[in-house]
Design brief:
By secondary structure, the protein is of the alpha/beta class. The chain folds into three domains: about 5-85, Arc Repressor Mutant, subunit A, CATH 1.10.10; about 100-165 and about 270-295, Periplasmic binding protein-like II (D-Maltodextrin-Binding Protein, domain 2); about 165-265, D-Maltodextrin-Binding Protein, domain 2, CATH 3.40.190.10. The chain has helices at about 5-15, 20-25, 30-45, 60-85, 100-115, 135-140, 205-215, 225-235, 280-295; strands at about 50, 55-60, 95-100, 120-125, 145-150, 160-175, 185, 195, 220-225, 240-245, 255-260, 265-275. The strands form three sheets. Strands 3, 4, 5, 6, 7, 10, 11 and 12 form an eight-stranded mixed β-sheet that branches. α1 packs across α2, α1 packs across α3 (about 30-45) and α5 (about 100-115) packs across α9. The longest helix is centred in the first third of the chain and has 28 residues, at about 60-85. The mean pLDDT is about 90.
Length: about 300
């Protein structure tokens, strides 16, 4: 295998026209330069220089390797420039995964800010449909994943950062008997038919846990895994529901939303990030933007 460093020595000799001049330019002794050229010729299996008067000139093989040495130098310089751009957060690719109700409230404003502050960074933005969202980060398929509180502990090299607690509110038909109240005790909904809006998992658990603490188990008359559809069922008078405030951005005009207490269900929203990704300034900027959006939502 040809030694790239020796090829650069050859290039210096060819450019300057002599071993002595190349040695002065490189800060080597002429003897050291001659040794490097001899070692490269042994690797190449062919003569690379021929003497001409007091100087040297390249053979066809020497000229070929000199041209490749120049190309290598350009490639290295381009790589160094690209690396500096990446380190500064001016280029790169960020893979982001999010759950549906975080899209409009957290992801959209954060990504818009990221594009203003780091316009050269490409963004791979996808809705996360994995049943194990942490695995997207742990296995390197994503740099950042937004998820609702999980009992799983992140693997090595992954951080789970708390962003906010998203409160659940009661969603009632506009003409419901409890609609005139500003705040409801959760137990007041115990005998109502319920519209389910959550699939089994971390979004449904806070609802079931809070209802159990209030002394009842909700009787689901209708099941839905979409907040807009669930609001439609409530508006039609098919039942009441508990839905997170982040899921109520698109409010059905035929429902009312009321705070609940004793207890108030909460779901915790987290960002999972890989430690190595946090070295990228754009990822840190995105995380800051998401935190700001979570604080002001």
């Amino acid at each position: 295998m040809l030694d790239v460093r020796r090829m650069q020595v050859l290039r210096a000799v060819v450019s300057s026209g002599s071993v002595t001049a190349a040695a002065a330019n490189l800060g080597y002794t002429p003897s050291a330069v001659s040794q490097q050229i001899a070692a490269l010729e042994k690797q190449a299996g062919v003569a690379l220089l021929e003497r001409v008067g007091r100087g040297v000139r390249p053979t066809a093989a020497g000229l070929l390797l000199t041209e490749h040495a120049a190309t290598i130098s350009r490639n290295v310089a381009e790589a160094e420039t690209a690396l500096a751009e990446l380190r500064a957060g001016r280029t790169g690719l960020l893979s982001i995964r999010y759950f549906a109700t975080a899209g409009a409230s957290l992801v959209a404003p954060a990504v818009a800010r990221l594009r203003r502050e780091h316009p050269g960074v490409r963004i791979d933005l996808r809705l996360n449909d994995s049943e194990e969202p942490l695995s997207e980060v742990e296995q390197g398929r994503a740099d950042l994943v937004l998820l609702v509180g999980s009992r799983e502990r992140p693997g090595d090299g992954v951080q789970l950062l708390h962003l906010r607690d998203d409160a659940y509110a009661a969603v009632l038909p506009a003409g419901h008997r409890l609609a005139a109240k500003e705040v409801l005790d959760l137990a007041e909904l115990a005998d109502e038919p319920w519209v389910g809006s959550e699939p089994p998992g971390p979004c449904l658990e806070p609802v079931l846990t809070a209802c159990a603490a209030a002394g009842f188990s909700p009787a689901f008359a209708v099941e839905s895994e979409d907040y807009v559809t669930a609001q439609g069922f409530v508006a039609a008078g098919l039942g009441v529901g508990l839905m997170p405030l982040m899921g109520l951005a698109n409010r059905n005009p035929a429902v009312v939303v009321r705070r609940v207490r004793n207890p108030e269900p909460l779901r915790a929203v987290y960002a999972a990030v890989r430690d190595v990704s946090l070295t990228h300034p754009a990822l840190r900027g995105l995380l800051d933007a998401i935190r700001d959006a979570a604080a002001t939502h």
